[in-house]
Amino acid sequence: MKPARKIILKPLVTEKSTDLRVKEDKYAFEVDLKANKPEIKKAIEELFKVNVVEVHTMIVHGKVKRMGRFEGKRPNWKKAIVSLKKGEKIEFFETV
Q1: Rounded to whole angstroms, how far apart are CA atoms 73 and 63?
Q2: How far is CA 4 from the centre of its chain?
Q3: Is 19 helix (H, G, I), strand (E, B) or coil?
Q4: How many helices (H) does the chain have, and how many strands (E)?
Q5: Which of 1, 7, 49, 83 has its CA 20 to 30 A from that of 65?
Q6: What is the pTM (predicted TM-score) of this model?
Q7: Which of the listed CATH numbers 3.30.70.330, 3.60.20.10, 3.10.690.10, 3.40.50.10610 matches domain 4-85?
């Protein structure tokens, strides 16, 4: 299994993810494309010392972009939305 830092690439701090965090206590992360739900759960618990209840994942497909007559594609990436045990918080997000 990969180390936790290789599975969790970065936190997602967007308007939508902030609303999820405030209203439903769910946190969003960009994760390794090949990581599965048990690996993500273990990595979050290891990095942030919290109890994860549920993990939802989705693959975000890269957009096709044009620069004049040339066309390219952004890479696909994986997003994980993590639900924590009631009353727990990830301190990293509280300071952002």
Answers
A1: 6
A2: 13
A3: helix
A4: 4, 6
A5: 7
A6: 0.88
A7: 3.30.70.330
